Amino acid sequence: MTDALSVLCDVVHISRSTDTPGQDEVVVEHPLRVEIDGTDSLLLSCSPAHLEELVTGNLFCRRYLSSAGELHTLSFSPDRHTAYVTRTPAAVPSAPDRPEDIRLPASAAYAIMGRNLSASALFQRTGGVHCVSLSLPDGSLISREDLARHNAVDKIIGHALLHHVSLCRCVLAVSGRLSADMMEKAARAAIPIVLSKGAPTDRAIQLARAHGITLAGFIRGERMNLYACPERIDPAR
User: What is the pLDDT along the chain (237 residues), one digit of tens a residue?
Assistant: First the structure.
């Protein structure tokens, strides 16, 4: 059973010279230890939802897995604070995917970002999580939220792996700043277009250019900055 994503916390609200006791809804921070084949272990701090996706995506991005098929077993302790993973080596190593040369109208990029920013009811209530969305070729949108943007990206990638979704024709949208570690995850998953409401770092831009990924930042309303591989975005549509 999934733990609660938020709790009520006593708080004193200050406005001008007035203090008023009350309660605020705050997000839950869930410590998770991941044991891999009984030898390696990782420590994560996350929101306690979609933990199977988080573990799968995180291990894929860290190169412990090259596909969901190598995930032999994944189980959790009763309190879901420890994940136990065993792996089955791939019989035939497969070549890594490459981002495909898709095209996206600018209007579609704005629409995807708008849908991402409104996808998390938990953010609307608490302001304490980030939301990441994956736009599929058929136009459908999958969204995941977490305390940290990189965890939300892991959950999206884990979902795709577990449901056999090819990421090389998808668009990733994130709600905040885009750092190098998030771009490394997008490169590992061969995602061709990454959209961000916020600013990218210099290393994120370098990685996007090196891996042939279109990177758009500062998407606000109907404007954006294109930092890498701008040819995939059609500004006239």
Answer: 347 999 999 999 998 889 999 999 999 999 999 999 998 899 999 999 999 999 999 999 999 999 888 999 999 999 999 999 999 976 555 666 788 889 999 999 999 999 998 888 888 888 878 899 999 999 999 999 999 999 999 999 999 999 999 999 999 999 889 999 999 999 999 999 999 999 999 999 999 999 999 999 999 989 999 999 999 999 987
Q: Burial level of 142, CB count in 10 A (0-12/13-18/19+)? A: middle
Query: Is the Cα torsion angle 141, 80, 62, 225 positive or negative in sign?
Result: positive
223 is annotated as contributing to ligand binding: yes
Cα(227)–Cα(117) distance, integer angstroms: 21
Q: Is 218 annotated as a binding residue?
A: yes
The crossing angle, in degrees rounded to 10, of helices 51-61 and 180-188 is 90
Q: Is 220 annotated as a binding residue?
A: yes
Q: Which two tokens mark 36?
A: 């891999």
Q: Has 60 been labeled as part of a binding site? A: no
219 is in an annotated binding site: yes
- Give yes or no for a contact between 74 and 56, defined as CB atoms under 8 angstroms apart: yes
Could you tell me where the beta strands, DSSP code E, fall in the chain?
A: 6-15, 18-27, 30-36, 40-46, 71-76, 82-87, 104-105, 130-135, 141-146, 171-174, 193-196, 214-220, 223-228, 233-234
116: nearest Cα among 150, 155, 142, 136: 142
115 is in an annotated binding site: no
